[in-house]
Write a structure and sequence with these properties.
416 residues; Rossmann fold; 14 helices; 42% helix
Length: 416
């Protein structure tokens, strides 16, 4: 059996979907070493992983893209943050490799320095991606602004004209700092997103079609395995049994984004509705809100405890929270604030599994109307639930690791 070293950025939204994959690999007899955010090390050790924290210098570099006044400025801030982290996470992974002496690596695609260190290493490695991949495709709109898929000749013309503008801006912003780090490791420069994401021998993409736009030109290293849903073990809170109305779950980002006004709009807009609002603020302070009689606000609550009874989820458009709801057949109202959330929100809408409300249009009355519309789209959410299950999840991811990285022949499995 192999010793596998996994490495994440300091984001629970990237660690949590990785956990069930590591669980599955451990179940198959592999030894798991893990470097992740310090607060989660005790819980990861409790799962049997040889867990240790990433460098505290990485965790000290917090996102500030929410301060930007426009999407271009937000992109520049985000790239600066990832670059600053990359200068630390590359050497950090290299130290971990020396300490753990792994047989294979599994690296967060957002840890740019660690990705370069993995490529410079002389062993097998894979990347995992829990957010929409910014890859070029003839079958998908250019990544970034959340455009709907093209329809007809005019739509295809739109994509051809906008692709070098939209994706080119992203690549011109990302490439210089990434190539500076790669050059320090003696690696060849990358020319763009396709080149960067094509470097990993295996890229586990934690989603599935048709939530991700179907396309004929997926790179050969990309394996779509569906969302790998996991929450920390927890007992249901006693107050949950007292809720006798349909539940609307409201979630915000696990890395601070100044999206607290989504919770405020939900509290105001749904105060007189026959629903129970449960809001979570993992990167915020619940004390700053006055909850109406039909609402409860928590800093953190495992979403699975609520989603099994939810009529609707209102999310900030984060891939993790959104797919977690859809994987349980719960329709989503996505209110994107930035980052990759414009793309996630559009996918929800296009799939017919929920609705989209841009953050700049967010008002209590508009959100209330969108929630009513969303609740009626459960059938679309159930279609995605079935598609996600068919993608295979953690067992499919573990199969890809074993066959493509470790070159193991899988045992023949009987059809279920």
């Amino acid at each position: 059996m192999a010793r596998i070293l996994a490495y994440t950025t300091p984001a629970r939204g990237h660690l949590f979907p990785l956990v069930p994959i590591l669980d599955e690999l451990a179940r198959r007899g592999h030894q798991i070493a893990l470097r992740t955010l310090a607060a989660e090390v005790p819980s990861m050790k409790a799962r049997g992983f040889d867990a240790a924290p990433i460098s505290d210098r990485i965790e000290a570099i917090a996102h500030d893209d929410w301060r930007a006044g426009n999407p271009r400025a937000a992109l520049a801030r985000a790239v600066r943050i990832f670059t600053q982290r990359a200068e630390q996470d590359g050497p950090d992974l290299a130290r971990a490799i020396g300490q753990e002496r792994p047989d294979a690596l599994l690296v967060d695609v957002n840890a740019w320095g660690a990705i370069a260190a993995a490529e410079a290493w002389d062993g097998p490695w894979a990347a995992f991606c829990p957010y929409p991949l910014p890859l070029r495709s003839a079958d998908a709109p250019p990544f970034g602004p959340g455009l709907p898929p093209a329809r007809g000749p005019l739509g295809r013309l739109r994509d051809r004209l906008l692709r070098p503008v939209v994706l080119g801006t992203l690549e011109r912003t990302m490439a210089p700092p990434i190539n500076r780090i790669r050059g320090q490791l003696g690696l060849a420069p990358v020319g763009g997103a396709d080149d960067l994401f094509g470097r990993a021998p295996l890229l586990l993409y934690l989603t599935a079609e048709p939530f991700e736009y179907p396309r004929r030109d997926w790179p050969g290293n990309v394996v779509l395995v569906g969302p790998c849903d996991w929450d920390p073990p927890a007992d249901p809170p006693s107050w949950l049994d007292d809720l006798d109305r349909p539940i609307v779950l409201v979630t915000t980002s696990s890395e601070f984004q100044d999206d607290h006004r989504l919770v405020q709009a939900a509290l105001e807009g749904l105060a007189d509705e026959p629903v129970a609002v449960v809001a979570t603020l993992p990167a915020g302070d619940p004390a700053g809100f006055q909850a109406p009689a039909n609402a409860r606000i928590e800093r953190f609550l495992p979403h699975r405890l609520v989603l099994d009874r939810a009529a609707c989820a209102v999310t900030h458009g984060g891939m993790g929270a959104t797919q977690k709801a859809l994987a349980r057949g719960v329709p989503v109202c996505a209110v994107p604030f930035g980052r990759d959330q414009l793309e996630v929100a559009r996918r929800v809408e296009v799939a017919g599994a929920g609705t989209r409300l841009p953050a700049k249009r967010l008002r209590p009355d508009r959100l209330r109307a969108k929630v009513h519309e969303t609740i009626r789209l459960r059938e679309g959410a159930r279609r995605l639930q079935q598609a996600f299950a068919a993608a295979g999840g953690p067992p499919a991811a573990a199969d890809a690791v074993e066959t493509r990285l470790l070159h193991r022949e899988l045992p023949q499995r009987l059809p279920s």
